[in-house]
Amino acid sequence: MRATFHTGLQELVHHLARMVRLAGDMMTNASIALHQDDLALAALVISQRDQIKAIYQVLERRCVTLLALEAPVAGDLRVVVATLQALGHAQRMGHLACHVAMIARLKQHNPMTSDKVRPLLARMSLLASQLAADAATAVEYQDPLSGCRLAVADDEVDALLCQLFDILLAEDWSHGVEQAVDAALIGRYYERFGDHAVAIARGVCYRVTGDRFEIDAETACQPR
How many CA atoms, within 13 angstroms, populate the side-chain half-sphere of residue 162? Predict the structure, then answer.
């Protein structure tokens, strides 16, 4: 019976990693759609919203079933609880990718028009996609130190967002209010996407060690 239970736990972790990768692929495609004015690709990303929601619901039910029927304790309980939390983060990552795709599809004036904004958002999109891939790898291989590494890239996303706001609020911004708002929203979506990826990696640390860690990108993880 316990062997079957542990197999179920392993399957949960495996499907969680796949869900995080799907969210990363969605953000990658949403960013390509934005940069290349690819309306069909943007529509594809938006259509995947229901897919990631369905995956979330199935895995959430599996978690609840394991909690209700198996009454796990100690390390097994941590796996189920942390997986539940990570599922919520992964679902929100998918929603954020859809938000980027919606701007790419629905807005008449692409916020990427500005030569100053384009490279910043391009770098943020690359980092966001990489953070998702790294978070999925951390889940798959149960790497407790992954949160520290992801936090370094996430700090760069935060710094780029500050640079973006400086450009959008400067007196020489000449592309209008609507494009400024859209660019700010896209930057914020990338920033939040990265935060969720880091949270998933932090959850791996909790699953493996039972410790909650604060992320310090300049030094290392320190336990509370």
Answer: 5
Distance of CA 99 to the CA centre of its chain: 13
- Taking the C-alpha atoms of residue 209 and residue 188, their distance in angstroms, rounded to an integer, is 32
Q: Domain range holding 28?
A: 2-223
- List the Cα angle 81/85/128 in 5-degree steps: 145
CATH of the domain at 207: 1.20.58.220
Distance of CA 112 to the CA centre of its chain: 22
d(CA 57, CA 60): 5
Rg (CA), the chain: 19
User: Could you tell me which residues are beta bridge partners of residue 222?
Assistant: 214
**Mean pLDDT per segment of 10 residues, for the chain of length 224 residues?**
75 93 97 93 96 95 84 77 92 97 83 82 96 94 82 94 95 88 95 96 78 44 35
Sole residue written with tokens 């384009």:
118
101 near 46, Cβ under 8 Å? yes
* 149 Cβ contact partners less than 8 Å away, ≥ 6 residues apart: 134, 201
The pTM assigned to this predicted structure is: 0.88
108: Cβ–Cβ under 8 A, 6 or more apart, which residues?
none
- Please state the domain count of the chain: 1
Terminal-to-terminal C-alpha distance of the chain: 36
* Phi, psi dihedral angles at 222 (to 5 degrees): -120, 130
Q: Residue 114 gets which letter from DSSP?
A: S
Residues 69, 61 contacting (CB under 8 angstroms): no
